[in-house]
Amino acid sequence: MSKINGKIAVFTVFLVLVVVYGYMQAPTNREVKIDSFLIQFENGTTEPEVKAILENYNMTLNYSIDCNSDNGGYKYYIKVDKDDMPDVVKDGLKKDKNWTDSGSPSFTKGDYVIYPVTEQAIHDKNFLEILKRHNIQVKTFVWCLVSYRDNSTRYDVLGKNCITEKDANRITNELEMNENVLIVMPEYICY
Amino acid sequence: MVKNKITIGILLLVMLVGVALIPAVSAQEEKDYSVTAEEALKHANANMIHFIATNPQGFENWTGASIDSKPVELYDINGQKLFYQFSVYKNTNLIGRIDIGANKTLGQSVRLVETDPIPFKVAEAMNKSIEIAKNESPDGKIKSTTIVVYAYPEIGAMTVVKDKTTGVEHRIFVDAYTLEKVEDKPATETEPGVLSMYEKISKKEIDENLKKWQNSDELTKSIEQEANNNGININLPVTEENIKKLSGNTTIASTTVQKAIAIPAYFAETILTVPTYTQATTYYCQPASAQMLTKYYNDVRPTQNVIYAMMNGVAPNGVTDTNALLYYKSSSGMNKPNSVKTTTVIYWDTVVNEIEDHGPFMSGTPTHARVCCGYQDNGFLTSYLRINDPWPVGHAYWEAFGEDTHRIYVRS
């Protein structure tokens, strides 16, 4: 009987220790930490090219690269010269609201407007005719996840497997200057 | 020769006066951006009338409420005054809070409106931060203890303690809801740990924000003018009697005030019925937000543990958007395969379209995930987003537009 009681006591102490340890490990702060970047590259950029591009920047920590279309959102876009944009719009580019998504607005890159378009648009005869008249091709975004994560159970350790917002802002600004990089999105760890 | 000397003399004098004036002008400009407590009270009162009149969700019982004219001053972690937080009472019960920006560079004057405020423990948090400071630095000199927004929208106490020997300053943060210590690195402006709201405002945003403040001031003044015409002093708390005076009839108060003063030329509002859930652990904001959205889109409520696992969460780590999307997209999760993350600069029209055409979405600050389920647009004068926040307990509030940094849009 006393043996069983002893076992229960040991088990209870163990359980309490586990709970206390878990509680101590739980993050109670709200530090801004970024563990990766989701980067949108120009059509046709290959993973080795991505690697070569990133090597020119101080990324602060070691990272891994995963270029996979499932990482990102919109697949397709068109690239229109800023000066030609009014003509293309006049010709009906914004005629059908299903051709674009307000959640992914167009943006400028150098002398061009990058105009994300839906899957529906690229199968729409009218839409394709507009592109044809203006000699515009449908392009595909290349999405890459550049991650600082390692095999640690804690992946939110600053200076080890995630970086500060200040570094993330610097990297974002620097990378977005590169002609092959369209958008850089820091991955904030949310609590 | 004499003429040349006089010319040179005048030039030197002009330069001298110029040199003397430039810092004075700059200082004047800096000073001009601050908002006094009296100005803030005017804005709080005027906007309360506006909310009572427009009657969005959560304000149904606000008629007859009054604002405590003595605000709690909330500071930024950089030491600058950030918000005046006014408490709203009805029959001595706390029914709301209105945060007014203490500086015009923050933008629109009303920063946050809580309609189901969670009581927080200002005195206890301050005492605890002092206590920790004394324990950790027995030889230190406590320089100040203030209530701060340490990582928007989280509020806590900050005690600054200076080591008498080394002269190094430390900041001790204690959360005002949980009374838990919030870690910080030694007090340098660039060290991470907590988030300054002032530091995130870029120079190019300042001009735009000043315009937004002017717009909200215009709305306040138009309400103030109408109140004055009715013999009501807007500097005094807004009572039921005042609302009656403005309407002449309590039963039609809302409509009359609405027509008379509170509705600008353009007004639009939509709130979607999204439940508000509490996050089950300190690091479950993404699962809790996804849980709210799943209930809205699919009318089911999976557990936050299941969602966390599908987001590849490993306790006790937080979750990024890309990992959260694993759950959003999965057929065994939210089953919204075309959901997307975005950090592109958000435009007001984008939010309106998103809510109207698609539905609620995850709205993230740099450290936290919440759900945006509505908006209120007062014709470029003021604009708010309706936020369901899972931390520290699920609650909803109106937030000045422009506070979020990243979003997940839900797409089938």
UniProtKB/TrEMBL annotation, chain B:
Q: Which UniProt keywords apply?
A: Transferase
GO terms (molecular function) for this protein are: transferase activity
Q: Which residues form the Peptidase C39-like domain?
A: 272-391
- What InterPro entries does this protein's entry cite? Peptidase_C39-like
Transferase recorded as keyword: yes
This chain's protein is named GTPase-sulfate adenylate transferase subunit 1
Q: Which species?
A: Methanosarcina mazei (Methanosarcina frisia)
